[in-house]
Amino acid sequence: MATILIENLTKVYPPTPTYPQQVQALGGVSMSVTGNVFVAVLGPSGSGKTTLLNIVAGVEEPTAGAVRVVQDGVPAQVGYVFQEPRLLPWRSVLDNMLYVQNRKSDRSKREAEFYLSMVGLSDVAHLYPAQLSAGMQQRVGIARAFLVNPDVLLMDEPFSHMDALTGRSLRDYLQRIWAHTRKTALFVTHDVGEAVELADRILMLRPGGVVFDDIPVNLQRPRRPDDAAVRAVETEVLRRFDSMEAAVRFGDQRN
Amino acid sequence: MSYAADLPTAPEFSQAPGTPQSAPAQAVHWTRKPWFINALAVAILLVVWQYLNSVNERVPSINEVVSFLGVELGGGSHGGVSRGEFWGPLSISLQRYVIGLAIGVPVGGLLGLLIGGSRRFRSVLNDTVLVLLVLPSVVWAFTASLWFGIGSTAPVVAVVLTAVPFMAVNLSSGIRGLDPGLALMSDAFRVPRLRRATHLLVGGALSNAVTGVRLALMTSWNSLLIVEWFGTASGVGWRAKHWYDAQRFEGFVAWILLFVVFITLLDWLVLRRLEHRSTRWQQQPTLTFAEGEVT
């Protein structure tokens, strides 16, 4: 069983020549995610969502605090879906899949083809990324993350650069593939509807990188954005955001 | 355990919403085709040459040059004791050229990888390589001749010194131009170093590397000819000088023509094809998508 354990995580970026002030991206985040759950981290721009994900993925070092990402006591394999597809433009779709695959065999190729078929891209495995639409490229990005058979799946606003229709289609693909694999997923987004549609649990971050709420979403899957129950949870999430903002404003005035 | 291993196919997901189709190619008028433009350029050059011959007797005619070339290639007599020589000088020059490139291209490539991939190496080597690049090939030719005197070492060294900076600068700029997001993606997926070097660094900078090779080959050929002209008693450069000194200008022009033909053939038959292959991913047709494609 995969576990993500985050304790008092802080990240402060030092001043740079272009921005001469230090920036606190995360201000003591603590949370834990265990089992085959889909957790959304919801927050506005600048709340440290991407930084949090990069630290969990091990590609960035925290300033303070600790992160453990384990599967049955050993370091977990991580799959990452980025905001942009991040495909090698000079490699075919299939080669891009195999680039992250550590086992090289006929079987790994079959697995790559399987996950491409799951995102509806069987016919384009031989094409280069530039020959695909942005949505198709992002579907390759999703398939690639599942190909490494991850214990933990990290997703950084993967649909934020898509138009509404494309984003909806990609969410459908993600729901289907996730329902099939049931990986432990940490999904970062600023879209309330997206978080409610996909997640079992929503962690809410406020600017400065502080978790201020943790909302369970106990709704049946698959969910549609126009379901009344989904709408009701969305309203509740927004209400809590408004309360948090009011509290922050009130605190500022008091200070 | 992999989920894919349990499910060899996923037919319910296999229907893509739209199948990409190639856009129809547009017909190009024959007067705009490359072969016509090239032929026109050559024809203009020949007309100008013949005109110059008619106004200045020191400029040999096309006919004289072609006749001279025939004798040189066939090993016939140029009159007196002088006989045509072509394959001997050419094989000597090619040998020097190939040895020089076999050293210069890999050394330049290695320097390019180091400069492009390591900030420390960049700070130490970048300016040095740039200085080497801005020096004209004639400087390397004279320097090599001064250092090594008459013989085969000077031309080989000149080829090496000319090729190295072209390779290094092009490859390093290709590596530095890579999207840093791809390195972060490789970090996140724990891609092994060797695969990252071959697929990400070399793959991404391949078109720059081929451009480097192309420039290195062309410029090194110039260096070789200059060294042979001034500092050797063999090779094609020396042969051209031989006819220049003998005031046989048709011979001199014939050899200049051969230099141009050699480098043009090398470019057409090898370098352009190599470049085309390395940039194949950039030349794919734009795709259109079938009705109903929503992504």
Provide a descriptive summary of the structure in words.
The complex is a heterodimer of chains A (255) and B (295). In chain A, helix 3 packs across helix 4 and helix 4 runs parallel beside helix 5. Helix content of chain A is 37%, strand content 26%. In chain A, the strands form two sheets. Chain A has a six-stranded mixed β-sheet with strand order 6-7-8-3-9-10, sandwiched between helices. Chain A contains seven helices and ten strands. With 255 residues, chain A is an alpha/beta fold. The longest helix of chain A is centred in the C-terminal third of the chain and has 27 residues. Chain A has a domain of 146 residues: Rossmann fold (3-Layer(aba) Sandwich), CATH 3.40.50.300. Chain B has a domain of 194 residues: MetI-like fold (Orthogonal Bundle), CATH 1.10.3720.10. In chain B, strands 1-2 form a two-stranded antiparallel sheet. In chain B, helix 4 runs parallel beside helix 7 and helix 9 runs parallel beside helix 10. Chain B is globular and about 75 Å long. The two termini of chain B are 31 Å apart. At the A-B interface, strand 6, helix 3, helix 4 and helix 5 of A face helix 1, helix 8 and helix 9 of B.
Task: Give the helix/strand layout.
The complex is a heterodimer of chains A (255) and B (295).
Chain A: E1 2-13, E2 23-34, E3 38-42, H1 49-57, E4 64-71, E5 74-75, E6 78-81, H2 93-99, H3 106-118, H4 134-147, E7 152-156, H5 164-181, E8 184-189, H6 192-198, E9 201-206, E10 210-216, H7 228-254
Parallel strand pairs in A: 3-8, 3-9, 6-7, 7-8
Antiparallel strand pairs in A: 1-2, 1-4, 4-5, 9-10
Helix pairs in contact in A: 2-4, 3-4, 4-5, 6-7
Chain B: H1 3-6, E1 21-22, H2 34-55, H3 62-74, H4 87-117, H5 119-134, H6 137-148, H7 153-176, H8 180-188, H9 193-231, H10 236-245, H11 249-278, E2 287-288
Antiparallel strand pairs in B: 1-2
